[in-house]
Write a structure and sequence with these properties.
252 residues, alpha/beta, Rossmann fold, Alpha-Beta Plaits, 2 domains, 5-stranded antiparallel beta sheet, 12 strands, elongated
Length: 252
């Protein structure tokens, strides 16, 4: 699904720009770069596998990311990957204040192995008044604690991945799934054989099944906002919005 969503987000946008100035700089030398109109700035704290992949994904979507980790060796190892990367102890409010953490659109705390550091970093960022604060947790109990101390959103990557996989495996035509609400999401699904060579008007998915087709992935081409006359072909993948239960029950 993510390649489809990236195409949707990039459509009409400015391609990501690569930087040749990819070095780790001292905290005191960090300066916020000028942004293009469609760019946002993200502070990613904790550069384990999840934090690193998150930062890379945001950069690929043409946003500015300041990547932060307390481990000097990890920062040095990743200095060739990120244009903006710092060694910093995010549990120290003065260090966060020095880099202007409160000025970022969103801060994401991705410290996975040390919950105390995760919790302290979350508390300090909330004290600074970060606009949107997202943290990573490993258990539901951790999530409840982080929400109570001020996180706007807490994600459980392993738990969420398990839920997505279970839902995909339970419906043979599901390719991927992005949850927006407990029972509502964006679903990437294979076109059923009963849909082949029929138009969206003939299928009337919105009224019959409560599903809206946002895009169609066909032969490496993204058909965005297909109209009612669009005909479904074999091997098409549909990006559909609606209730998961409705999509699972739908047999064409």
């Amino acid at each position: 699904m993510f390649h489809m969503l990236q195409r949707l987000l990039h459509r009409g946008g400015t391609p990501p720009q690569e930087s040749n100035d990819q070095v780790s700089v001292p905290r005191s030398q960090w300066r916020r770069p000028n942004l293009l109109p469609d760019q946002r700035q993200f502070l990613v704290i904790g550069l384990g596998r999840f934090g690193t992949s998150l930062a890379e994904g945001l950069i690929a979507l043409n946003h500015t990311v300041l990547a932060v980790d307390s481990d000097y060796q990890r920062v040095q190892a990743l200095s060739g990957e990120f244009a903006h990367i710092l060694q910093l102890d995010a549990t120290k409010i003065d260090a966060l204040r020095e880099i202007g953490a409160d000025q970022f659109d969103t801060a994401i705390v991705c410290i996975g192995t040390d919950f105390e550091s995760n919790l302290l970093a979350t508390v300090q960022l909330r004290k600074l008044g970060v606009r949107r604060l997202i943290t990573k947790a490993r258990t539901k109990t951790q999530r409840e604690i982080l929400l109570q101390v001020g996180a706007d959103e807490v994600i459980l990557p392993e738990f969420d991945a398990g839920i997505r996989l279970s839902r995909r495996l339970s419906a043979v035509n599901f390719v991927d799934y992005l949850e927006l609400d407990p029972d509502v999401g964006v679903i990437e699904m294979l076109a059923l054989s009963s849909m082949h060579n029929k138009t969206l008007a003939e299928l009337d998915l919105r009224h019959r099944h409560g599903l809206t087709v946002l895009a169609i992935w066909r032969n490496d081409q993204l058909l965005l906002h297909p109209d009612a006359s669009t005909q479904i072909k074999p091997n098409d993948k549909l990006l559909v919005f609606g209730r998961v239960a409705d999509a699972r029950r739908w047999k064409g």
